[in-house]
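quick one before i forget lol
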Amino acid sequence: MREGVSASRVVMAGGPFASLHDFLALRFPAVKDWAARLARGEVLDASGQPLSADAPCKSGMLLWYWRSPPPEPRVPFEIELLHQDEWLVVVDKPHFLPVTPGGRHLHETVLVRLKHQLGIETLAPMHRLDADTAGVLVFTVQPATRNAYQALLRERQVHKVYEAIAGWRADLLFPLTCSSRLLQSPGDRFMQMQVVAGPPNAQTWVELMGRVDRSEADRQALQRPHDPHCLPPGPLAHYRLTPSTGQKHQLRAQLSALGLPIVGDRIYPALLPQPAPDAVPDHAQPLQLLARQLSFIDPIDGRQRCFTSRRRLWLAPDS
C-alpha cells in the first residue's frame, strides 16, 4: 500500500513490444506519464522489484502499479471507528464519502482512508452503502473468512435498520410492508431503479417514528445553501426502515414510489444532473438516510454481533 492505496495489477498480453514503456503506453493510452513513473520505480514485477522503461517484455508477465488520478477535493467529514478485532472493522460512515475506489474517487473513499489509518491492506467491505448514505459499515479483515461473512447477506441472515426523513401522506397507515419489483432503468437513466410489474424482489417494513415540524425543517434548510429539490414540499416525517432484501437503492426507490421521497435525494423521484467535474462540492444538504443498526450471528464464533450508528439525521426530531 501507499497512503492506503493498494497496487493495481496488469498481465502483459499481445505484442511483441520493444519495451515495457511501449506496452504500458498502448495498454493505457490515457496515461501520459509512464516514463516518469518508471523512472521513479513505480512499476514493479511479480516479486515487487522496480522495472525500468527498457525492461524486456514477454507475454504473461505480471506487473504492479499505482493509480494516479487527478487531485480529489477532500470530503470534510471523518470516519468514526465503532469496533475492531481480528475479524472485523466497523465504522460509522459519513454522508458523501464513497465506500470503495471508482471513477474519480480513490483517496476520498472509506476503504482507502481506513487502510491508511489502520495499515490493514486486506480490508474489504462486507456490504455496501451508497456514497450519499451515512451509518454503520462493516469490513472484513481476513481474506479466508470474507466469504463466510458475505454469505450472511446472500442468505438474508443480516438484520438491518435504517432511518429516514421523507414525505408524509395522511392516507397511508403505518406500519406497512412495501413489496415491489425493482429493476434498473435502461439508457441514460441507468442510475435509477424503477418499480415494475412482476413478482416482488424487494421488501421493506416501514414504521412511522414521528412527524417532523415543517417550519423547523424550513428554518434549518434556510441556514444552508438551499436547493429546492432537496427539501420537497408538503409534510415530512421520520421513519424506521427494516429491509429484508438488499436491492440497489431499495429504500430510496420504494419510498419514492409510495410518494414519500427522502429529503436530499438527487436521484428519486427525479434524476438531477450531476455537478460538473470542476464544480466545488456542495455538502450542505445530505441525503436524510442513515444506516442505524446492523446485527447478525457471527459465522466464525457464533456470538451475537450488533453495531449501532452514533450519527443523527439533521432534520430528525430531538429524542
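fyi Helices lie at 20-27, 34-39, 110-118, 143-154, 214-222, 250-257.
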